[in-house]
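Check out a protein:
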Amino acid sequence: MSIELWFTFFIASLLISISPGAGAVNTMSNGLRYGVRNSLPAIFGLQLGYAAQIVLVGIGLGALLASSTTAFNIVKWLGIAYLVWLGYQKWKQPPLRLEAGGDRGERDWVRFWQAAFVNLTNPKATVFLIALFPQFVDTHTDQGTQFLIMGTTLILVDIAVMLGYATLAAQMSRWMKSEHHRQLQNRIFGSLFIGAAAILAGFRNH
């Protein structure tokens, strides 16, 4: 994977992590309840679930690429269409609800596994990875290494972004609770997803 292609993927990874979803809501809720430091178990739990999704999707797409380049390209273009649809849905989505209450004595390991299952059982994460990976895979080089690089990038970026969300929630709880601000955030990211789909549709890496 070239540095230029990796940087494009890095930007896509950043957009994915920043866009509010189940993982972001989990992290912000923990930030509101427990503060940044005590949100770490849940953040790392999210990464366990995310890593499992990445491995499963990577294995499946690798097998598809090995069997049929045409089928892989079909998945690629369906992925672009999905990004457009996701952007439209994000634009229309009502503000996500955050709960600031809860048991402050909840054990770290409980929050770790709860967060792991948030990502592990999230079908939207699976579909999004299936939509994203084919846009960046070079079919003429080793796919295993490429999936490893992309998976590692996704997880490291997500850790950084989740730490940022936890900090934001802990320091700006009034702003995070505002439905108006969360609705505006949805519309911004909805537009960004559609823009990303347009860019990827014209991008060729192989």
In short: DSSP finds nine helices and no strands in the chain. Residues 3-9+25-201 form one domain. The two ends are 11 Å apart (CA to CA).
